[in-house]
Amino acid sequence: MPCRSPSSIHNRDTAHVNRRLEVCCYSVTDAVIAQEAGADRIELCAGRPEDGTTPSVGYLVQAAKALTVPVFPMIRPRGGNFVYDDLEFAAMRVDARMVAEQGFTGVVFGILDDRSFIDVPRCTQLLSDIRGINPAIEVTFHRAFDQVTDPRRSYRVLSELGFDRVLTSGQAATAPEGIDLIDELITSFGNEPLVMPGCGVRPENAEELLATGALDIHSSATLSGTSGTDSATVRALADLVHS
């Protein structure tokens, strides 16, 4: 799908709304770099080759000490698909409760069933575990959303379950390529939960994504698939988000 110009989508002026830049970081060092360059929130992960897994206890402790912006740890026991067996789900429950108990203001997870639908019972259980400890904790459903069979139905389900935001590339290889679905979800459902474009978000395309009415955008802000957080990229994105 070709990328479109900002004028060809529903251009919603959100410049005076509190927009936020979330940066995905695979180390506490990178998270500090992102914070100092203007990131509003950190998604903290381990497992870069797996596209994000649960960070270690040590990383969580150091992140809590080193960072002042909100940190949302990933809860994902392994790479690969998002269908988990009983032991994997039990591990996710332990990790999620630990994150909530340590006082983090948010958490990120996503669980599907073997039909590529939202796994409602398990998502409900994990949400109950987390919010039983911290009722105010924010919860993001990650890019497992990009593998669901019916994204519109799934978005409504996530709203009913009480997720605060949905990270998505619009079921495309990158968010700019999936901008039609991103725009539709924001337009048709009132951006509740918040639709957060992610994957391939760069300074050169962030304005187009913000023009959909997105209030949050998500980027790794790296120069390559193996490099760490690039402060200049974070700064450029932050300038666009906060302008």
Notes on the protein architecture:
The protein is of the alpha/beta class and 243 residues long. It has a domain at 18-136 and 199-242: Alpha-Beta Barrel (TIM Barrel). 37% of the residues lie in helices and 14% in strands. The strands form two sheets. The protein has a four-stranded parallel β-sheet with strand order 3-2-1-8. Helix 4 (120-133) links the parallel strand 4 and strand 5. Mean pLDDT is 94; it is low at 1-8.
Structural class: alpha/beta
Order of helices and strands: EHEHEHEHEHEHEHEH
In helices, the fraction of residues equals 25-40%
**Model regions low in confidence, pLDDT < 50 over at least 5 residues:** 1-8
Radius of gyration: 17 Å
CATH topology of the domain at 18-136 and 199-242: TIM Barrel
Strand content: 5-15%
CATH class bucket of the domain at 18-136 and 199-242? Alpha Beta
CATH superfamily of the domain at 18-136 and 199-242: Copper homeostasis (CutC) domain
Shape: globular
Head-to-tail CA distance between termini: 28 Å
Largest sheet, order of strands side by side? Answer: 3-2-1-8
